[in-house]
Amino acid sequence: MSDVTQYQVPTGQLGLSGPVARPAPGTLPLRGDIAHIALADRYLVPHYAVPQVRSVGEEAVTLRLNPGDDADPVTELAAGSRFELLDTAGAWCWGAVGPEGPSGWLPAAALAPLGQ
């Protein structure tokens, strides 16, 4: 699996044009502090992340709304599924299946080692 994905980075001047409806949690890879680089032309946040493409390890894993085994589930990712890593916090990773989601947290240990 390639660890590089090409996304169209917005060109030209970006500007605010008024209020934007915030998507439901677990949908787009967008938080108050960070978003997927592919969303830069639609949402204003302090930081945009270029994803590190990874894959789920040998066992399926539940993508969750927050870091923690007791957090609400978003979806189940099958073993070997593509995951775009955008942020880490301790033993948890936040990211998405792609720039249009779904997004959430999963244990870092659930990801296959780099290069696999």
From TrEMBL:
<protein>
    <recommendedName>
        <fullName>Bacterial dipeptidyl-peptidase SH3 domain-containing protein</fullName>
    </recommendedName>
</protein>
<dbReference type="Pfam" id="PF18348">
    <property type="entry name" value="SH3_16"/>
</dbReference>
<dbReference type="InterPro" id="IPR041382">
    <property type="entry name" value="SH3_16"/>
</dbReference>
<feature type="domain" description="Bacterial dipeptidyl-peptidase SH3">
    <location>
        <begin position="63"/>
        <end position="111"/>
    </location>
</feature>
